[in-house]
From TrEMBL, chain A:
GO terms for molecular function: oxidoreductase activity; thiamine pyrophosphate binding. This is Ketoisovalerate ferredoxin oxidoreductase, beta subunit. Residues 56-202 form the Thiamine pyrophosphate enzyme TPP-binding domain. It comes from the Bacteria. The keyword Oxidoreductase applies. InterPro entries: PorB-like (IPR051479), THDP-binding (IPR029061), TPP_enzyme_TPP-bd (IPR011766). Keywords: Oxidoreductase.
TrEMBL record, chain B:
Pfam families: Fer4_21. Keywords: 4Fe-4S, Iron, Iron-sulfur, Metal-binding, Pyruvate, Repeat. The keyword Metal-binding applies. Its cofactor is [4Fe-4S] cluster. This is Pyruvate ferredoxin oxidoreductase delta subunit.
Length: 290, 101
């Protein structure tokens, strides 16, 4: 069926038109490496749509489907139902959506999918704005971050996807980061073996939108873990576990100063943000003990 | 173009697909984007494979038996510099790509 014109090591083509240093590209390579070729991918429009290809050309060796922005989870439900009707219970149905397609536009279909308990693996790669259309602020944009629609810094907090997922009582949900690939691969191996709705939230820096050098994107994601801006945890059958606990949290100014999008943050705002981040980290540690 | 693609799919016996479908797997020559090129100091390299693990384009292979153990696919390397930034021994340097070389 598929006409292979250039050879690759994995299931994704080597030359894809993602920007240099893009986190999304590294993440999908590792996900498909773990999940294997018995996977069907649903991709909404966005940066990740480049994997579905343009016209006749594709960048994935496995079946992929490009739907609309607001209903990726609903499409995945339909594909899963089709497979079940064929007697196929082994194929993993993967949704690979950005933060806009998950937290703003696709939230209702994701909520419906989690409520019905469909056997779908939903991955949100979070680059914290609408990067494909020109860095517009989304509901995943962090507090005080610049974007073209929040030029003086966003004045509300970021939505918490995993708390929304936990409220739907999903069997498994986890947060991963581009800065810790062994942890990411381990979580996807675990997610592959579990039945039911699974939600994975992946931190994925965007060098273009965040104002960082392409070479620094892995370093920035590691710094986000060290400062507590991004917490690596997993929730499995009602039990929450924080996977990476830094010995002491670094001050968030080291993370903010690496990026141009936080250039306008004043010292008072930084202090406010520091308190929120520390409180959130301590809350996670308390939730682990419940 | 859509009609063409449907006619290709209609000939397939194994799969019964409807609608336009991309069925040519190909790579763009992203190596032409590169402004800087990674160069490895092989005498310091410990062959840990961290550069290959974090390469977004997956173009690095570690061949432990050879002396020049870190091999790049120059057709696809975008020159982002993550390998040089992540190397624990700092033995990868980014050198400017000159025209015609």
């Amino acid at each position: 069926m598929i006409d292979i014109k250039s050879e690759t090591q994995g299931y994704v083509a080597h030359g894809v038109s993602a920007c240099a240093g893009c986190g999304m590209e590294l993440i999908i390579r590792n996900i498909l490496d773990v999940l294997g070729d018995d996977t069907t991918v649903v991709i909404p429009p966005g940066c990740s749509a480049l994997f579905c290809g343009f016209g006749k050309e594709t960048a994935l060796k496995i079946p992929a489907f490009q739907g609309n922005l607001e209903n990726s989870a609903a499409y995945a439900t339909g594909i899963r139902a089709g497979y079940r009707a064929q007697g196929n219970n082994h194929t993993t149905v993967l949704v690979y959506a950005g933060d806009g397609g998950t937290l703003d536009i696709g939230l209702q279909s994701l909520s419906g999918m989690m409520e019905r308990g469909e056997d779908v693996l939903y991955v949100c790669y979070d680059n914290e704005a609408y990067m494909n259309t020109g860095i517009q602020g989304s509901s995943a944009t962090p507090f005080h971050a610049w974007s073209t629609t929040t030029p003086a810094g966003k004045n509300v907090m970021k939505k918490d996807l995993l708390s929304i997922a936990i409220a739907h009582r999903v069997p498994y949900c986890a947060s991963c980061s581009m800065g810790n690939i062994p942890d990411l691969r381990h979580k996807f191996e675990k997610a592959k073996s579990i039945q039911g709705p699974r939600v994975i939230h992946v931190f994925s820096p965007c060098p273009t939108g965040w104002g960082i050098k392409p070479a620094k994107s892995v370093e920035v994601s590691r710094m986000a873990i060290q400062t507590g801006m991004w917490i690596l945890y997993e929730y499995e059958y009602g039990k929450l576990k924080v996977n990476i606990k830094p010995k002491s949290l670094e001050p968030i100014c080291t993370y903010l100063k690496m990026q141009k999008r936080f250039k306008q943050v004043t010292d008072e705002q930084m202090e406010e943000l520091q308190q929120l981040v520390t409180a959130n980290y301590n809350k996670m540690l308390k939730m682990e003990k419940i | 173009m859509q009609k063409q693609q449907i006619s290709v799919l209609a000939k397939q016996k194994k799969y019964n697909a409807l609608g336009p479908c991309a069925n040519i797997f190909t790579s763009i020559n992203t190596g032409s984007w590169r402004l800087e090129r990674p160069e490895v100091n092989y005498s310091e390299c410990v062959k840990c494979g961290i550069c290959a693990m974090y390469c977004p384009a997956n173009v690095i292979t570690i061949n432990k038996t050879e002396k020049e153990c870190v091999q790049f696919m120059w057709d696809y390397c975008k020159g982002c510099g993550i390998c040089a930034n992540e190397c624990p021994k700092s033995c990868i340097a980014m050198i400017e790509e000159k025209e015609g070389e």
